């Protein structure tokens, strides 16, 4: 067993089955997929939004650490602020994530 880095997650999908109350997330990584099962839909949705948040923060850190053009940096900062303000997560650290 080993951990999965946020940078290696290619896709995150919510999964549900019509006849079975399973609350799952599917993570697509270079070596295949990982299926995570939560106890309820609320927890699954929190995992989903948290993973999306971490993945996006990683992307923004990468883009902002190697600025190429000022207009690209400004666009990414605007997008980051919009994402933070509209995030469904309820945690103080979301509005204060260090870049």
UniProtKB/TrEMBL annotation:
<dbReference type="InterPro" id="IPR056429">
    <property type="entry name" value="PH_CMIP"/>
</dbReference>
<protein>
    <recommendedName>
        <fullName>C-Maf-inducing protein PH domain-containing protein</fullName>
    </recommendedName>
</protein>
<dbReference type="GO" id="GO:0005654">
    <property type="term" value="C:nucleoplasm"/>
</dbReference>
<dbReference type="GO" id="GO:0005829">
    <property type="term" value="C:cytosol"/>
</dbReference>
<dbReference type="Pfam" id="PF23066">
    <property type="entry name" value="PH_21"/>
</dbReference>
<dbReference type="InterPro" id="IPR052813">
    <property type="entry name" value="CMIP"/>
</dbReference>
<feature type="domain" description="C-Maf-inducing protein PH">
    <location>
        <begin position="1"/>
        <end position="64"/>
    </location>
</feature>
